Amino acid sequence: MTKYFFEKATILIVDDNQNNLKVLCDAIADSGWEILVALDGESAVEQAVYAQPNLILLDVMMSGIDGFETCEKLKSNSETREIPIIFMTALSDTIDKVKGLSIGGVDYVTKPFHTEEVLARINVHLKLYSLTKQLEEQKIELEQHVAERTKELTQALKDLKQSQLQLVQSEKMSTLGQLVASVAHEINNPVGFITGNLSHLTEYTSKLINHLQMYRKFYTEPHEEIDQNAQKIYLDDLMRETPEIISSMEVGIDRIFNISTSLKNFSRSDTSSKIEFDIHEGINSTLMILKHRLKANKKHSPIEIIKKYGNLPLVSCYPGQINQVFMNIIANAIDALEDVETNQKKHHNLNITISTTVERDRNCVKILIQDNGLGMDAETKEKIFEQFFTTKLVGKGTGLGLSISRHIVEEKHQGKIYCISSLGEGTKFVVEIPINTL
Ligand SMILES: Nc1ncnc2c1ncn2[C@@H]1O[C@H](COP(=O)(O)OP(=O)(O)OP(=O)(O)O)[C@@H](O)[C@H]1O
Ligand SMILES: [Mg+2]
After folding, report:
1. CATH class of residue range 10-113
2. Could you state, in order of their start, the residue ranges of all structural domains in the chain?
3. Is the CB of 325 under 6 A from ligand 1?
4. Interior/surface letters 192-221, b for 16+ CB within 10 angstroms, e for the rest
5. Which CATH class, in words, describes the domain spanning 270-438?
6. What's the pTM value of the predicted model, to 2 decimals?
7. What is the pLDDT of residues 349-407, one digit of tens each?
8. 427 lines ligand 1 (CB under 6 A)
9. Which atom of ligand 1 is nearest to the CA of 333?
10. Local structure of residue 31 (DSSP, 8 states)
């Protein structure tokens, strides 16, 4: 017995001649296929819709609507369009076989039937139909797969771009940091040399002056030439001012020393693990670096820094990165304050308030950086942490500062950064950093 493909297949036979139906049914009874019959075209269409057969054997010459018309109806209905149709014709019929194929039929069988041939043809078309269906399903599956992969790849590309940017930025920061640290280090040598010698100079000068004063005390009538020279060089002024000059040099050198210490602190090259860090030291060295932008200039009046520091414990963090966050927030605040006077009349009281508190119950320190600039509208506020979002002129802002800051605070330190601001009300940034993390 021939093994038929698709043993569970359903076949609809459509013929208005009961005899023909019987012959056909007998012929394929052993095949294992389920057989449905219809006696006219109209009921065949109806049956095909609800029974969804796998194949239709359709007589061409029928009373009522003929096979071709029935075929056209089946093909115009989306629910039955795909079902393969094999036409049945009598040898004596003079019909246009090409027409049948062109309207969607797949084959012909001829009456009287040659059983083996009919079975073979049905089998071939069932197989074709099933394979076509499988192919379509695979195509849909493949398309879905491609769409999913494309989505994944797009996301991966986005992530890659983001981490590339962060790499570039942190690479820049660390190169800059190394440069600053080495410059600061180089400055410290001559500063140390000057500081050391200045203390000798103070001592020697005071000894020299004392000595001169002794001369004056015991030789009250100096030689005329000495007296003239003393007047010419303003000896009294020299003796009074020299120690003052030296002490102002001491103040100056002290300031240079402070600056270089701040630079070194700011650019602390990051260790691969977190270290205990004094947050106030970080803020102070950041402010020192930004000092030149706080002074009054053509664009704005001076910016006052109001510090309200609490009593903070050391915080386990990457100092270089945390300083970078302070730098971004304070630089933005200065930008915002500059805008106040560009947009409005001069002489505002511009200030930035920096407060720090410790929240023991939540095991974190909280740093608030508030400016009294113009603030921002709700729409801007929504987007400020997005990469490349900037309201600044081309070349002035890249729109990276806050997105990098958020990455540093939230991803690298499991902290929180958020902003409270509304138009005309200034802006407050809040940074929370856990005190103890690994
Ligand atoms: N203190 C602030 N007051 C008002 N607007 C602010 C303030 N801080 C940030 N913004 C807004 O958030 C935007 C994004 O800030 P962000 O630091 O990410 O980028 P940027 O300063 O524009 O560029 P850069 O990459 O140079 O930092 C700013 O363009 C500005 O519109
Ligand atoms: Mg910025």
Report:
1. alpha beta
2. 10-113, 270-438
3. no
4. eebbeebeebbeeeeeeeeeeeeeeeeeee
5. alpha beta
6. 0.58
7. 999 999 999 999 999 999 999 999 999 999 999 999 998 899 998 778 878 889 889 98
8. yes
9. 1
10. G
